[in-house]
Amino acid sequence: MQSSLPRPTALCAALLLLTACYTNNEESLYGPAAACATGSATYLSAVEPIIQFNCSACHGNGSYRTLGGNIPLEGYTNLRAVAANGLLLKSVLHQPGASPMPKNAPQLSACNLDVLQRWVAAGMPDN
Q1: What is the largest CA-CA distance in the chain?
Q2: Which H or E element spans position 91?
Q3: Residue 26 falls within a domain, yes or no?
Q4: Of 46, 63, 73, 96, which sees the most CB atoms within 10 A?
């Protein structure tokens, strides 16, 4: 018995049905986003990882003179100095008076911005 659809048509129809069932959204691919921590923002466990991931390529010890506008963010002492003069938050919040950071990249997530703001508001503790 011969099929009523020619092979190429049946193949195209099958592929069309398969692609119609595919969903491409962040939650279905990666699961629900983790909740943003609301406790105290500690330097070692919360702030330093944000800086390492988003800033150290340009503002790390080996690159800040050439790529980072001579602004070092590596280590607590350097980061605290930049945060204390207001430049850290102005930059990451894209406020006037500072270059928006990270450069040529999207603004940090709301969660990361919240962590940095809470750390500065708490007096930038070294914990």
Answers
A1: 82
A2: helix 87-92
A3: no
A4: 73
